[in-house]
Each structure stands twice: as C-alpha cells, then as structure tokens.
Amino acid sequence: MKSRYLAVTIVMLSCALMVALSSCDLINKDEEKFNIDENNCLTKINLDKTGPNVIIPEKVVDKVINNIYISDAYFSKIESLDVSKVSELEKFKLDIPYEVKESKLKTLDFSRNEKLKDISIDNAIALDKIVFNKKCESITLRDTSVENMNLKSLKNLSLFDMYPESWTHVMN
To answer: Does pTM surpass 0.70?
Structure first.
C-alpha cells in the first residue's frame, strides 16, 4: 500500500514540476532572440537573451535568413558571432557607429557560407581576423584591425575596399 502511495505521489510531483517549468520563461525561443524582417533579413539581435557570444540559426520560425544587417552601437557588445549555420546567407553587413570607441568582436568566419557574396564591415575596431568563402564578390572593410588576409582563393572577387581606421578619420 505504501509503495502505491509513494508512486502516485512521485507521479503527481513530476507532473506539477513539469507544469511549473513549462510556464516559466527559462527557454528562450529564436523569435525572442532575433528579429527577421519581411525580406528575410536579420536586423536585430537581443543580446540580453543571446548573451555576447551569438550563434545565429539558419531560420527563425519559418523564415530562412538570407541577409544580415546589424547597425547600432548596441552591437559593439558582441564578443563572438557564429554565422556558420546560416546556409542561405547572401549578404552580411555590420555597421557600428563611430561614436562607439570599442567593439569586442575579434574574428569572423564565413568559410561555411557558400552563398555569401557581399560582406561589409564598418567600425569593428577589435576585428583582426576574417575568413572568407570562395564565392565572395564584394568585400568592404572600414575601421577594422584586420591586417593579413588571404584573397588568392577568391576567384569571383570584383570589389575589394579597405579603409584603415586612420584613413577614415583623415577623410572625415
């Protein structure tokens, strides 16, 4: 009799615990972390939910990410950005305003993004390493710390612009 009472109690406590946990907001869903516009472009990342080490998924809800355009001082807090799961990525633009004196992002790896053709990075001062995919056609880098790049394997590259930090400030 006692074992039956104990088993019923365990099952009831387990059910109550599952209900309590499922009603909590312990699990962040992708749609709470990322904002995708009507053109399948990722435009916002909620760093409070993702943390500074961001892993971007291939799709959010039912929208496959084609472009990434993040432009705000808020994104200077990103320490790492993993875009390797975004297989349909065609364009990537990171634009941190000049008022921000520090950014934390040090490396970007686009080697797994086979469809990526256009990369533009502006004012990511801490960025010192970028790995490109072989199909990149256009690369623009402004105010980064990137010095050594291997562009030999980029057969389709038609536009490459690089403006070191000192040049941009002289031009302004």
So the answer is: yes
Average pLDDT over residues 9-28: 67
Strand order in the sheet with 159-163: 34-36, 41-45, 67-71, 91-95, 118-122, 138-142, 159-163
Closest C-alpha among 71, 82, 5 to residue 37: 71
From the list 49, 53, 57, the residue with the least C-alpha distance to 25 is 49
Phi and psi torsions of 93, nearest 5°: -135, 125
Q: Are 42 and 67 in contact (CB under 8 A)?
A: yes
Residues 6 or more apart in contact with residue 6 via CB below 8 angstroms: none
Token pair for 40? 């399948």
